[in-house]
Structure formats: C-alpha cells, structure tokens
C-alpha cells in the first residue's frame, strides 16, 4: 500500500487493491474512466490492477498493474487501453469461479466494471456467487441504462453521427434526394432522437414507437412538395427493418428514390467530447469512493446533476424511456 496523496476518504471497507475492466462494446471516454479510477485509487493509497479483454481476461487472469503514469495521455483517446470483449465463458458459473480465483490470488478486494447491461450481469453474478464487491460504471454509446441520465460515450457518438448527417445533407440537398440514415443504439432510440433534432431530420423512427412507415408517407411526399431540398430520415438500428426497411417502404409507397446510409461502428470511435470526459472522470472517482464506503452491486451514475447509485439489477430490469418531449419537438420542427 502506497502513501495517500490527498485528503483520505473514509475506508471502512478496508479496500487496499481494486481491479478495473472494460467490457462489451467500447465507448469513447472509457479511457477517461480508467484514468480516473487509477488516479483516485492511487491518491488514497489503493493499488490498481487492470484486467485486459474484459471478462475473458478475468477468466484467464490477464492482469497488469496500473499506476498514475500508465494512464497518462489517455484522457483524449478513444477505444479502451484495457481492450474489450464480449465473453461467453463468463456466462457459466465455472467461468465466474475461475475469475474469482484469479482475483483472490492477486489479493484484489473489489472490481470496477465499465460497460453496459450485459457487463453488469457479469459483475452482479460475481458478487452474488463469490462475495466480491463490484461497482458498475455506465460505458456504452447507447445511453440505454436505467439509473443515469447519460452513459459514457453517448455524447461523442451523437456528435459523430451528427457530423455524418450534416455531410449527407449537403449531398442530399444537391441532388434533392431522400437520405435514410441508420444510427446505432441497439434496442434504444436515444442516439436517433438526439441526432434527428440536432440534424433537423424530417422524420425519425425509434424502437420505442412502433409507428408504421406507411403512416408517414404523406409527410415525406409533403416535404418534397414544400420545396425542401432533399430530406433526412433518421432510423434507429432497433426499429424493425432498420434503414433498409424504411427506405424500401418509402420507395414502394411513393415511388421516390432513396439512398441508405448505415453509419455503423464509426459511431463508437474517436476522441471523447468534453461531456464524456467529464462524466467519465466524475464517475471513475465516485466508483473508488463508493467501494471504500462499502457500497457494492450498484452502478454509479449521474441523475439531475447529482451522483447516484442504482442496484445493478435495476439497470437492466427497469427501462429508461426516450425523452417524449424531445420526440414531440422533433415532429413539431420538421414542418
Ligand atoms: O452497445 C453498443 C453497440 O455499438 C450497439 O449500438 C450495437 O448494436 C452493438 O454494440 C454492436 O456490437 P458489435 O460491436 O458486437 O457488432
């Protein structure tokens, strides 16, 4: 144990060494979160072990020690320096038992998992079956976790998608075309809705609203009649049929030519924007303090500008809805 570097935080849990991993789809800002964990822990005299390749690495004992200088120059970098994976072995009790043995062999007192709901399932079972304290940090571009207003990576993904939408509008307007653009988000429409409003889309299709494409064909026809220079339609990947299905329905229903653009994994890359860096830094710091205070099996998030703690199970059992106000706003402004 090294000497504390700043005011000591109460440590009734007696944490001396924590492990941290990133899991599931990477998200811009994960490095900022790792950095915050490492530097907060070090400032409290706590050692940090980085687990490489998410739960697959935990299962294999793929560990490295991390000090404050190991995370230098990572704040602005996209991706994750610890690498990420979607683990299959972790889904079995045997796989989790092996991971728990590796943690104990390295005298690790607690684990911080940066990822989405799949990763939180893994963390929850580790704590339930082996009594190892765990804290989740919301790291996913999808923003689909109950218990936090925003997830790490979401703001950057929206900026990246918006940049692409602006560019597609340039070419779309020049050719007076209808562009149907698909954004990520898995089963949620958060990215789609934000991008639609910020990008001035004529229509947006999200999984949270099962409206039929046929029902909006008049809007598409009308937008052309109104003299609009091309149209932008945003489709969340979770909407049935995706952008390809929507484009086909528009072509079949109106005879108008469409172009489809699926933005894909580009939305997961790039340097995190300031909001993601700040969110990740706050949450990384809070995660270490939470473990020291004896908290476990919770996700640290931010709600209404305050740090909040949500049971891990709630993050996947309860649903975070899209902003209905914003959905209405998207419709109102597409006149
Ligand atoms: O959860 C993040 C995410 O990028 C989703 O938006 C998308 O559906 C999925 O991951 C893609 O996963 P993969 O990288 O495994 O193709």
TrEMBL record:
- Regions that span the bilayer: none
One MF term in the entry's GO annotations: fructose-6-phosphate binding
Task: Spell out the GO cellular component terms annotated for this protein, sorted alphabetically and separated by semicolons.
Answer: 6-phosphofructokinase complex
Q: Which reaction does it catalyse?
A: beta-D-fructose 6-phosphate + ATP = beta-D-fructose 1,6-bisphosphate + ADP + H(+)
Which residues are recorded as binding Mg(2+)? 117
Q: Which residues form the active site?
A: 142 (proton acceptor)
| Cross-referenced InterPro entries | ATP_PFK, ATP_PFK_prok-type, PFKA_ATP_prok, Phosphofructokinase_CS, Phosphofructokinase_dom, PKF_sf
Cofactor(s) named in the record: Mg(2+)
User: Carries keyword Ribonucleoprotein?
Assistant: no
Q: Which UniProt keywords apply?
A: Allosteric enzyme, ATP-binding, Cytoplasm, Glycolysis, Kinase, Magnesium, Metal-binding, Nucleotide-binding, Transferase
Task: Name the predominant localization.
Answer: cytoplasm
Gene3D superfamilies, A to Z: 3.40.50.450, Phosphofructokinase domain
Enzymatic class: transferase
One Pfam family, short name = PFK
Instruction: Give EC number(s), comma-separated.
Output: 2.7.1.11
* Positions of ADP binding: 35-39, 169, 200-202, 226, 228-230
Location in or out of the cell: Cytoplasm
Q: Which family does it belong to?
A: Belongs to the phosphofructokinase type A (PFKA) family. ATP-dependent PFK group I subfamily. Prokaryotic clade 'B1' sub-subfamily.
Oligomeric state and interaction partners are given as: Homotetramer.
Function according to Swiss-Prot or TrEMBL: Catalyzes the phosphorylation of D-fructose 6-phosphate to fructose 1,6-bisphosphate by ATP, the first committing step of glycolysis.
Q: What is this protein called?
A: ATP-dependent 6-phosphofructokinase
The gene it comes from is: pfkA
């Amino acid at each position: 144990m090294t000497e504390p570097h700043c005011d000591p935080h109460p440590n009734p849990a007696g944490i001396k060494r924590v492990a941290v991993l990133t899991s599931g789809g990477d998200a811009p800002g994960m490095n900022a979160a790792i950095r915050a964990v490492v530097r907060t822990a070090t400032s409290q005299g706590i050692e940090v072990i980085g687990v490489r390749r998410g739960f697959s690495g935990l299962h294999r004992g793929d560990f490295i020690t991390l000090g404050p200088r190991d995370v230098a120059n990572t704040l602005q970098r996209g991706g994750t320096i610890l690498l990420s994976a979607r683990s299959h072995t972790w889904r079995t009790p045997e796989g989790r038992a092996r991971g728990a043995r590796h943690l104990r062999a390295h005298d690790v007192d607690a684990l911080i998992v940066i990822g989405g709901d799949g990763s939180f399932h893994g963390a929850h079972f580790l704590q339930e079956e082996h009594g190892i304290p765990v804290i989740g940090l919301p790291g996913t571009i999808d923003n689909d976790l109950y218990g936090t207003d925003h997830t790490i990576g979401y703001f950057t993904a929206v900026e990246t998608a918006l940049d692409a939408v602006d560019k597609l509008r340039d070419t779309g307007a020049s050719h007076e075309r209808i562009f149907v653009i698909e954004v990520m988000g898995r089963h949620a429409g958060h990215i789609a809705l934000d991008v639609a409003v910020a990008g001035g889309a004529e229509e947006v299709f999200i999984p949270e609203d099962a409206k039929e494409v046929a029902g909006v064909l008049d809007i598409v026809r009308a937008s052309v009649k109104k003299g609009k220079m091309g149209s932008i339609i945003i489709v969340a990947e979770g909407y049935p049929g995706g952008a390809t299905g929507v484009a086909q329905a528009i072509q079949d229903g109106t005879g108008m030519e469409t172009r489809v653009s699926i933005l894909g994994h580009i939305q997961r890359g790039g340097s995190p924007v300031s909001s993601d860096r700040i969110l990740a830094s706050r949450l990384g710091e809070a995660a270490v303090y939470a473990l020291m205070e004896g908290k476990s099996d919770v996700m640290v998030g931010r709600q209404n500008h305050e740090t909040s703690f949500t049971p891990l199970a709630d993050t996947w059992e309860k649903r975070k809805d899209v902003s209905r106000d914003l959905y209405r706003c998207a419709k109102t402004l597409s006149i």
